[in-house]
Amino acid sequence: METTITSLIEELSKYLETAQITQNETLLEQHSKDESYHAPHKPLAVIFPKDTTDVQHITRCCSQFKVPIYPFGVGTSLEGHVIPNQPGISVDFSLMNNIVEINPEDLIVRVQPGVTRTQLEKELKKYGLFFPVDPGADATLGGMAATNASGTLTVKYGTMRDNVRTMEVVLANGTTIQTGTKAAKSSSGYHLNGLFVGSEGTLGCITELTLKVFGIPEHIAAGRATFPTVHQAIEAVVSVLQAGIPIARMEIVDEDSILQVNQYSELDLSIEPTLFIEFHGNKSGLAEDMAFTEQLFSDFDCTNITFESDTAARNQLWEARHNLAYAYVHGYKGRKMMITDVCLPISYLADAISHARLMLDIYGLPGGITGHVGDGNFHIVLMFDPHDEQEIQFAQELNEKVVAYALERGGTCTGEHGVGTGKKKYQQQEHGEALTVMRQLKQALDPDQIMNPNKIF
């Protein structure tokens, strides 16, 4: 392999600048891992493309030498997606970070894959626009599309798959395709957007995205509602959804997680199961929605509900929620974090979360429950000792039981984090014969298995 990588680098040097190719030990280490608990593996080299043409050269050269490609954004993934688990190169898209075009009239924006969520958000504000997919990390938009990321606003605005109009993708053989159009809808051909969004770099490298954007709402109100139990809080969520209230965000944070939020964000929130909620709309409509929600929550013994329309107070609330994972890492120094990620039909959600809490108590691991419960997605943030074999086993068993509970009720093993290496073992159970079709698509588009191999399958 050493001879092969030397030959590959020599070939790439014909097309790329010297500074775009590195085997610097520090950078190899940086690209050996993500934010997950999965074991790191260093790439043989790190390549920094500047444009689509560079990516075409990289894929063609790697195809020629049969060297695997591991696309890399900023490394915030949670299931080992970017880890080079067999000898290959890491393709870092950080230099492809231009916002190509903002089109307010059509409510779309074109970006390169290395643009981060907060970078786009800052530029869109100048036009009175925003992009609604908001995972907790400041991920790249290419990485978010690769994993079909979502976030706190999914209940109203949908996931990445719902907000991508078209993508430019370079396939394993260097061919470049467009997966869709700029139009709001189409009945023409196969839905390639749906195929490539969530493909985790196993079918090609995303080199440009055209995304839907939205006007910043006229009025926004956020609030917190506390309940005696998590079960009652989730039942309240279901009642709001069934009533058709157009809520923008609805997040559950349990007692253990509120404790971590208070310590990390220096807040003084009541240590009770809490729903973080937000409404978008016009002033009179919001008042009615908030009053109706408060009435529904009272049916489930809501102990307190407060609303904030002040921008700074709202931002503080959601910043605390987004920083929850980091709060756990800070609060349990020396431990590793595992985050479960399942999604179920909302009618099963309350019982699923009660089951997850029971598993936490049985295994005795520190952690808490949080999630985008407005769309049936929740997480357990598990903190385990990476040097304790029993705790590692307990964390894995707990994760498996939570996943099994979701799959048995028509849910999925991952609502937003993706499969990577961590969720591969559940794919057959979840998809059945459809997994064979997925394998056939992979084989057709990547016959040499160089695009992020050993992920998903």
What does this structure look like?
The protein has 4 domains: 2-92, Uridine Diphospho-n-acetylenolpyruvylglucosamine Reductase, domain 2, CATH 3.30.43; 99-215, 2-Layer Sandwich (Uridine Diphospho-n-acetylenolpyruvylglucosamine Reductase, domain 3), CATH 3.30.465.10; 219-319, Alpha-Beta Plaits (2-Layer Sandwich); 332-421, Alpha-Beta Plaits (2-Layer Sandwich), CATH 3.30.70. It contains 17 helices and 19 strands. The mean pLDDT is 95. Helices cover 37% and strands 20% of the residues. Strands 12, 13, 14, 15, 16, 17, 18 and 19 form an 8-stranded antiparallel sheet that branches. The chain is an alpha+beta fold and 457 residues long. Its cofactor is FAD. InterPro entries: FAD-bd_oxidored_4_C, FAD-bd_PCMH, FAD-bd_PCMH-like_sf, FAD-bd_PCMH_sub2, FAD-linked_Oxase-like_C, Oxid_FAD_bind_N, Vanillyl_alc_oxidase_C-sub2.
How much helical structure, as a percent, in the residues?
Answer: 25-40%
Number of strands: 19
Total count of domains: 4
The overall pLDDT average reads 95
The DSSP helix count reads 17
**Low-confidence region ranges:** none
Q: From the structure provided, what is the oligomeric state, counting identical versus distinct chains?
A: single chain
Q: Kindly name the structural category.
A: alpha+beta
Strand content: 15-25%
CATH class of the largest domain: Alpha Beta
Main beta sheet strand tally, sense and closure? 8 strands, antiparallel
What sort of overall outline do the alpha carbons produce when their principal axes are compared? globular
CATH fold annotation of the largest domain: Uridine Diphospho-n-acetylenolpyruvylglucosamine Reductase, domain 3
N- to C-terminal distance: 24 Å
Second-tier CATH architecture of the largest domain: 2-Layer Sandwich
What does the radius of gyration come to?
Answer: 22 Å
EC number: 1.1.2.4
Organism: Oceanobacillus iheyensis (strain DSM 14371 / CIP 107618 / JCM 11309 / KCTC 3954 / HTE831)
Protein name: D-lactate dehydrogenase (cytochrome)
Enzyme class: oxidoreductase
